[in-house]
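Appendix C reproduces, verbatim, an entry submitted by the partner laboratory led by Prof. M.T., so that reviewers can inspect both the input and the predicted structure.
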Amino acid sequence: MKKKSSDNLKLLFFGLGSIGKKHISIIKDNFDFEIFAYRTNKGQEKNGFKINEFYNLDEAFSIKPDIAFITNPTHLHIETSLECVKRNIDLFIEKPISNSLGKTDELDKKIKKRKLFSYIAYNMRFHPVISNLLKMLENKEKPIYFRAVCCSYLPNWRPSQNYSKSYSAKKEFGGGVILDLSHEFDYIDWIFGGIKKIDGFYGKVSDLKINSEDILNAQILCKSGIKGDLHLDYFSHKSERKIQIYYKNEYIEGDMIKNTINILKDKKIKTINYTCDKDFTYKKQIQYFFKNYQKGNYNIMNNYSEALKLFKKIMEFKKKNIIHFE
């Protein structure tokens, strides 16, 4: 990949759902790039960004985009990415990589062979609680244990949409807490030095009208020897997103909803508050991506090859550990 000047990039979006629109809005507010979109249904409402839309794939590729933003449904990520790689187009892929391992290795080989730039978008790495916990951990002894939690109520996610018809509700589209809430796997892998093994169970316990899993309880062993557990669910009426880290003489709790880090030591509590609006992590992520793209930094964190290693561990766990509660 050659370095690109900041004013001549062509971006082609595949998918204009909520996440695609969010990325476009941030890019338009911060950069002066040409943005286009490929859509599969002509009957869809026109986008509100006044960007050109294509309904024919060959026509979309005829503009010779520099970067493809893969923001369509999860089960289409690999298929779409392979079409882009054929044409030497660099990749920004929204998390997760896919809903299966099918052709993931093929895509990895082709990205490497063609020396293409790639990035898997896990925006929670840019949350100030997570990024600052990483810095704290670098200067401390190894923790005894950690516990991570992400709880929410799926019907409240997108109030204007019938939750039972969303991709989150459909396992065949990549829905379910394991992939939908895989941010937790990603930041655990990042801040604790890599996940070695995942064990536990997942399944469906609520009466939500979905066929995807709504609960996961997992035990995680990291390569550093640090152990912890992770809870994810779709059915909690109390939203909670926390990471608790236990030391011999200290306790640290990061809260990604309250945007705080609490440190308990010698019976004293220190609270650090951070400013983080709903788009903060996405803005930071887009800035990070383009900064590294301009530099041609193929070692950008969470490039495809790096992210694929964790994805394989997640999918291995998913294949072996389902429990049917019915």
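Residues 1-5 have pLDDT under 50 and may be disordered. Additional entries are available on request from the coordinating office.
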